[in-house]
Amino acid sequence: MTETFTNVWPTLQAADAPALIDFLVDVLGFERTAVYADGDRVAHAQLDWPHPAGARAGGIMLGSHQPDADWSRQPGTAGTYLVADDVDEIHRRAVAAGAKIINEPVDRDHGGREFTLADPEGNLWSIGSYRGEPRNS
Question: How far is CA 14 from its chain centroid?
Fold first, then answer.
């Protein structure tokens, strides 16, 4: 099997990076691939999004907020669409974890099912089964 991966890696900064990592792994289903930390300060974390065939299907990178760094982003301001086959199962886990649900699961006219939640930092995540339109060659 050839491993597939994305060359686009959204990045987040967090006021409480360890808690955000736990939420993204335990609730949304990311896989903890690498976490470089000194206590509660996370210099870099890579969380992979699993693919049903076992290949890596992309992921995110994140770390603790560093307001004076060149690559500084305000925590809680990101919005991400996450493609998943098990939208209702992720919604169930999110509700059980007490996540703030912005929009309940709904079937969209353009295809797919999705819902939206806010993570503990305030970032918005739309989790849906719509994989986008096929690319014309």
Answer: 13
State how far the Cα of 28 lies from the Cα of 92, in Å rounded to an integer. 10
Using CA atoms, how far residue 20 sits from 15, 123, 136, in Å, is: 9, 10, 37
Segment 108-129, tens digit of pLDDT = 998 899 999 999 999 999 999 9
- Are 98 and 88 in contact, with CB atoms under 8 Å apart? no
Residues 82, 125 contacting (CB under 8 angstroms): yes
Tens of pLDDT along 7-55? Answer: 788 999 999 999 999 999 999 999 999 999 999 999 999 999 987 666 6
- Please count the residues of the chain: 137
Closest of 100, 102, 106, 101 to residue 87, by C-alpha: 106
